[in-house]
Amino acid sequence: MKKILPLALIIAAGITAIVSCTSTDEKEPVDYVNPYIGNISHMLVPTFATIQLPNSLMRIYPTRSDYTTELLDGLPVIVTNHRERSAFRLSVTQGEELKPIIPVSWDQEHITPYSYDVQIADNSIDVRLAVSHQSAIYEFTFQDPEKPATMLLYTADGRMQTDGSLVSGSQSLSSRMKIYFSGQFDIAPEQSGLLRDGKISEERLAEEPRACAALRFPAGTKTVRFRYGISLISQEQARKNLQREQAEDFDLTKVIEDGRREWNEVLSNIKVGGGTDDQKTVLYTSYYRTFERPVCLSEDGRYFSAFDGEVHEDSGVPFYTDDWIWDTYRAAHPLRALIQPEKEEDIIASYLRMAEQMGTCWMPTFPEMTGDTRRMNSNHGVAMVADALYKGLNVDAEKAYEYCRRGIEEKTLAPWSGQPAGWIDGFYKEHGYIPALREGEQETDPNVSGFEKRQPVAVTLGTAYDQWCLSRIASFIGRDEDARKYRTKGYDYLTVWNPETRFFHPKDQYGEFLPDFDYRFGGGIGARDAYDENNGWTYRWDVQHNFAHLAQLMGGREEMIKNLDQTFAEPMGRGKREFYEQLPDQTGNIGQFTMANEPSLHIPYIYNYAGAPWKTQKRVRQCLDTWFRNDLMGIPGDEDGGGLTSFVVFSSIGLYPVTPGFPVYNIGSPLFSDIRLSLPGGKTFHLVAKDCSSANKYIQRATLNGKEWNRPWISHEDVAAGGTLVLEMGSRPNKQWGSAIEDAPPSATDTEE
Predict the structure, then answer these.
(1) Based on the domain organization, do 233 and 295 belong to the same domain?
(2) The domain spanning residue 210 has which CATH number?
């Protein structure tokens, strides 16, 4: 089967193509979005081509592993969790063989953020799909209408019912959570019932595993449309959601137009001039990715929460979930706090509700559709809260402080566990670090996962940062004693600092560093016996709140610069096969730096703290140009619903929030000569990069609102107030600009009372 690439991919691949008669000046932001970027992964999970309105429950992508998959496994109905499969499955066939899911060939596919077009079954059936917030509509056109057509709707574990042109169903997502759909075809079938042994029976209702409804349409049927609503509350609510969003008709064109309009409104919050079409495509595609999660569950003022299994009134504050905070606190949440602060307020309010509904009052860390899965490590919801408070967002600070504190103090720090504190937590509270196991030493804490391990250095460093963030919240609400306590705990990274090697080094329960430890390959699969998903070269820089002190530990700013340079220069040390067999998350390499995983995102900006902003400018451009491209492999690693692409958005516009909890942005090297951010209150932040180009990536001088600006950072207050930052760019670095020690971005030691 030959697949024909969409025009955006043809351009990206450099293949000569007929140029559209529409000039690039007439393009709207949504026209630059290429959902196919990253559809082939470098190592682990691809970035799926998602059809979804911003942060909406109705989320869909093709039912295949990645772009190279030969067959579609039926057609999608709704994706319930990020990177997972459709909760139901829709199959359409003109053949005689009927089964619940019918794999089909696909061709001539085109995807936008709001629509999906594809030819299936050897180009014999044209499929079109458009989505709204809690509903969608399919249109099927048959090239040979003389053959009858059968539609099959399948649920793996739930309920399916037919009644003429109406069909509805449910599927269990967990022991106490279901998702429902209610749909309608625009023409009446000649036969409708349940699929039994490859035949359409007269049965109308089944509540059992692998239930499948089947509807046969007569020969001569050219086009069939199917619209449906979904709900987490009830079948009736699914019907109401459909009626609210699509009224009484089957107007696919209107749903497409409404979706396009909504995406344009959202994406237009960032407008850029200059740069190349490919750079704009990467920017707007990355921005679109940041709206995939979390999703809004509110339905007519109510929502179902898996955190207690109940339906709640939302009291005018929408409820959001499906957010992997370990990935998203670094840049996705700060991006929203800047451009959509009201939505960020609602998301944080949702977190506080979750904490209460779980009964523990522990701030969640990985809230998904089915509850808090507690994946990864640390409690970075506290960073999300601290960042929002110091950027002026409306957050219940007292409640947030208590839930963050309890999450850190009462829940175990063992990765991937939601259990109460255990042995290693008591040890941490006494000694300030998570102890590593020596070779051959057996695990003694039942909270520790056999695969995920203790991740002792990663957890120690992450918790030190979390407790510094907690001190920021305590200070915000006037709890000065607590602020001092947690500010001191923010230095716990010192407990695993090895002054001889100048790396963060796993230490056993007796206070001894593990002997003969290899910072590249020590720690087993994913380095989890010491770090997490990344090696010691990455975690050498995991002190997000205190780079000024880290520079001192390394012997001064010049030594820090040398160590940063070496990170980008240090060889992998093994062949790629061996390297990635042990560290499959550590792709997108530049030396030991990995562009593909979130703990590395801030590393290119650390030069700003060490007196060499010009090297930040160089590295940021290097990272963007090398690893984020307008092609099928244009994302270097797992794109965790905005976790990685929010770095691209910020870095492309010349800013980056290195330390959530400090209301500041580091200045990098923007890709565009003219950038306008539309902010709440009608404010506009305007960044002008004069003479910006691929060669002119270095800042020569800068002004903020007409006044000389020599700092390689800018406050959130200055950005949110609107105004103009002008950067004069050149092809050679101005090594003096922003290099003075007093001009470095703030660190914890600089701001202590």
Answers:
(1) no
(2) 2.70.98.10
Are 249 and 322 in a shared domain? Answer: no
Q: Which range marks the domain in which residue 249 is found?
A: 7-266
3 state SS of 425? helix
Same domain as 330, residue 198:
no
Q: Give me the chain's average pLDDT, please.
A: 95
Closest by CA to 389, choosing from 490, 462, 478, 463, is 478
Does 284 lie in the same domain as 228?
A: no
> Which has more pLDDT, 3 or 500?
500
Question: What is the phi/psi pair of residue 282, to 5°?
Answer: -65, -40
Number of Cβ atoms within 10 Å of the Cβ of 701:
16
Residue 474 lies in a domain: yes
Residue 490 corresponds to which amino acid? G
Extended beta strands in 416-536, E state: 497-498, 503-504
Question: Predicted confidence band at 2 (pLDDT cuts at 50, 70, 90)?
Answer: very low
Q: What is the DSSP string of 356-424?
A: HHTSS-PPPSSEETTEE---SSS-THHHHHHHHHHTT----HHHHHHHHHHHHHHB--STT--SBP-HH
pLDDT band at 26 (very low <50, low <70, confident <90, very high): confident
Structure-token pair, residue 5: 């690439």
Coil, strand or helix at 531: coil
Averaged over 541-563, what is the pLDDT? 98
- Which of 266, 295, 313 is at the close of a domain? 266
- DSSP-based three-state secondary structure for 129: strand
Q: SS3 string of 37-60? A: CCCCCCCCCCCCCCEECCCCCCEE
The answer to whether position 75 is within a domain reads yes
Q: pTM of the prediction?
A: 0.96
For the chain, the distance separating the N- and C-terminal CA atoms, rounded to the nearest angstrom, is 67
Q: Which of left, alpha, beta for 473 (phi over 0: left; psi -120 to 50: alpha)?
A: alpha
By DSSP bridging, strand 683-690 and strand 723-730 are parallel
Are 236 and 324 in a shared domain? no
How sure is the predictor about 25, in pLDDT bands with cuts at 50, 70 and 90?
low
Q: Residue 1 falls within a domain, yes or no? A: no
The three-point CA angle 352-354-359 to 5° equals 105
How far is residue 702's CA from residue 183's CA, in Å, rounded to a whole number?
58
Has residue 290 got a pLDDT over 90? yes
Q: What is the DSSP letter of 20?
A: P
Is residue 679, in this structure, part of any structural domain at all?
yes
CATH of the domain at 346: 1.50.10
Short-list 120, 138, 122, CA closest to 130: 138
More confident residue, 210 or 8: 210
Q: How far apart are CA 284 and CA 35, in angstroms?
A: 10
From 214, 237, 266, the end of a domain falls on 266
pLDDT at 86: 84
**Average of per-residue pLDDT across 724-738:** 98
Is the domain of 259 the same as that of 311? no
Q: How many domains does the chain have?
A: 2
**N residues, the chain:** 753
Evaluate the omega torsion of the peptide bond into residue 294 and state whether it is cis, within 30 degrees of 0. Answer: yes
**Could you say which DSSP state residue 739 is in?**
-
Structure tokens at 184: 């309608």
Q: Are 29 and 284 in contact (CB under 8 A)?
A: yes
pLDDT in tens, 595-644: 999 999 999 999 999 999 999 999 999 999 999 999 999 999 999 889 99
Does residue 276 share a domain with residue 152?
A: no
Q: What is the pLDDT of residues 69-97, one digit of tens each?
A: 999 999 999 999 888 888 999 999 999 99
Residue of 686, 694, 699 whose CA lies nearest to 730: 699
Angle, nearest 10°, between helix axes 341-357 and 332-339? 130
User: Do 149 and 84 share a domain, yes or no?
Assistant: yes
**DSSP string for residues in 704-721:** ETTEE---SEEEHHHHHT
